Amino acid sequence: MSDPVAGVLAVSDLPACRSCGGEALQQFLSLGKTPLADNLVPGDRLGDLEPRFPLEVAFCPKCALVQITEEVPAHTLFVDNYLYFSSFSDALVRHAKAHVDHLVASRGLGSGSFAVELASNDGYLLKAFLPHGVRVLGVDPAPDQAQAAREAGVPTVQEFFGVDLARSIRAAHGPADVIVANNVMAHVPQLNDFVAGIAELLAEDGLLTVENPWVKDLVDHGEFDTIYHEHFCYYSCTSVDALVRRHGMFLNHVEYFPKLHGGTLRWHVGKVERVSLQARQYLDAELRAGVTEFAYYADFASRVERMRSELLALLSELREGGSRVWAYGAAAKGSTLLNTVGIDTGLVEAVVDRNTWKQGLHMPGTHQLIRPVEDLLAEQPDFCLLLAWNFTDEVLAQQAEYVARGGRFIRPVPHVEVL
């Protein structure tokens, strides 16, 4: 057992692979001990000791799944300390609507259809089904997000998903024609219960679509800030294929969105094997690139260290030269970057974010105040570190006036760059 702060929270060490149970996990990266990425700090608790937990990453040679080796209880991560609301990203909302529109058209969905989203957040995706008359149900354990979804007209079950809940939903509503699981499978510690639940709920001719960042992009582009305690797993097509086949389903098709979250794949899964040419090509490409072997990951730690040193040197130089530096995006990835690089308020004064739930709180560990985005223009710092670099185009479009006035953005990933 790990004990980062005695008596605060017990954290489990991972004895075996979360997917296949293999016991020969090979660690290739340690980011030290970091606070929970979404455990934002109120002003009156800045003097409290924040718990920190080991953040270490390993590869399973048996099924190729990349995963962290510690497990913070899910309730702590996604109920007690979760303030992420999908609707604050215009790009994500557009992406979700396009996905829904395609599902409706390609699957012939209508008033007789039933669609379920796992980790439905504030209903940002499911509400796009409503104009088509499709029955919907969201599943999300986070209380504020579930309530926001209900207020948007999206029925939502506030629970963690697994086999038991799947059986309950199927008994009450029937099998699901479509299940959407966007950016959730990375957040699931009990993978087999989660996927078995999907197999239980999905209709025999139904479709599951799963989106998650591609581990190949994470490694190739040095996206180490995507690693935090909420992200238990980091997926390749190979590891997804092995996982779903274990539960009588098949990876039939793959889509790629290179600009979404640093490189996102959408996996199409069904109970009937109809593997497309594209899916076979992605599996073959991973095999050729070495994604299925430990050697592919072996030098990642040294590359992360070079990126860390380069960013720290740049920020130190700017501050020593008298420049004021803020940051954009109080996202979980921002917490990882600030804490692992060692960026305190002496280097970056404040963070701005559109999410009103986060404003007025402070970043975990490094304690920058989270301010409204409008303050970026009001204060006009010289530079702004783009913590939400996965939404670079959206942020630059929104902050054109800041740039016009002479402000400069710093993008830290895939390499340190002043835009």
Could you characterize what this model shows?
This protein is α/β, with parallel strands linked by helices and 419 residues long. It folds into two domains: 86-296, Rossmann fold; 300-418, NAD(P)-binding Rossmann-like Domain (Rossmann fold). Helix content is 32%, strand content 22%. The chain contains 13 helices and 19 strands. The strands form four sheets. Strands 8-7-6-9-10-13-12 form a seven-stranded mixed β-sheet. Strands 16-15-14-17-18-19 form a six-stranded mixed β-sheet. Residues 1-11 have low confidence and may be disordered.
**Proportion of residues in helical segments:** 25-40%
Low-confidence stretches: 1-11
- The tally of beta strands, per DSSP, is 19
Number of H/I helices: 13
From the 3D structure, determine the CATH topology of the largest domain.
Rossmann fold
CATH class of the largest domain: Alpha Beta
Kindly give the count of domains: 2
Produce the secondary structure layout.
Elements: E1 12-13, E2 26-35, E3 52-59, E4 66-68, E5 70-71, H1 74-80, H2 90-107, E6 114-118, E7 135-139, H3 143-151, E8 156-157, H4 163-173, E9 176-182, H5 191-201, E10 202-213, H6 215-220, E11 233-234, H7 237-245, E12 250-257, E13 264-270, H8 277-289, H9 300-320, E14 325-328, H10 332-341, E15 350-352, E16 369-371, H11 374-379, E17 383-386, H12 392-398, H13 400-404, E18 408-411, E19 417-418
Parallel strand pairs: 6-7, 6-9, 7-8, 9-10, 14-15, 14-17, 15-16, 17-18
Antiparallel strand pairs: 1-5, 2-3, 3-4, 4-11, 10-13, 12-13, 18-19
Helix pairs in contact: 4-5
